[in-house]
């Protein structure tokens, strides 16, 4: 049985980050993620009162997540995206999926 993996990254933007610039970088990052093998789904959410962002990526397998991690910091699109994030605010968690419903993109 193949186990899906979820990566949850919580972060805040740097104080001098322009929101329009972040949205452009996020759209570029989303297109990049959408073209990676083994990526099932990604969403980005923001908590209004704390300015905390959460990026959630569902991977088909643990190996697919590892492949993306292996190339992440060498990729220009990923570097642009992360350059807008306050490094000290990043918290990454990984979860193996135990149960899920079918995921449909709108």
List keywords for this structure.
106 residues; alpha+beta; Alpha-Beta Plaits; four-stranded antiparallel sheet; 3 helices; 4 strands; 28% strand; globular; ABM domain-containing protein
Task: Describe what you observe in this structure.
The protein has helices spanning 19-34, 62-72, 76-82; strands at residues 5-11, 39-47, 52-59, 91-96. The chain has 106 residues and is an alpha+beta fold. The chain has one domain: 2-Layer Sandwich (Alpha-Beta Plaits). The chain has a 4-stranded antiparallel β-sheet. The longest helix has 16 residues, at 19-34. It is globular.
Topology:
Layout: E1 5-11, H1 19-34, E2 39-47, E3 52-59, H2 62-72, H3 76-82, E4 91-96
Antiparallel strand pairs: 1-3, 1-4, 2-3
Helix pairs in contact: 1-3
Organism: Pseudoalteromonas neustonica
Protein name: ABM domain-containing protein
Mean pLDDT: 92
Number of domains: 1
Poorly predicted runs of 5 or more residues = none
The count of β-strands is 4
Q: Can you tell me the CATH architecture?
A: 2-Layer Sandwich
Radius of gyration: 14 Å
Strand content: 25-35%
Helix and strand composition category:
alpha+beta
Main sheet summary: 4 strands, antiparallel
Q: Give the overall silhouette.
A: globular
Protein name: ABM domain-containing protein
């Amino acid at each position: 049985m193949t186990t899906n993996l979820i990566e949850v990254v919580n972060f805040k933007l740097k104080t001098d980050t322009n929101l329009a610039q972040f949205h452009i970088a996020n759209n570029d990052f989303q297109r990049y993620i959408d073209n990676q093998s083994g990526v099932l789904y990604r969403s980005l959410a923001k908590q209004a009162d704390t300015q905390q962002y959460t990026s959630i990526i569902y991977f088909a397998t643990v190996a697919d997540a590892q492949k993306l991690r292996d190339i992440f910091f060498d990729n220009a699109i990923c570097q642009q995206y992360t350059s807008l994030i306050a490094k000290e605010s990043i918290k990454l968690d990984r979860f193996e999926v135990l149960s899920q419903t079918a995921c449909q993109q709108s």
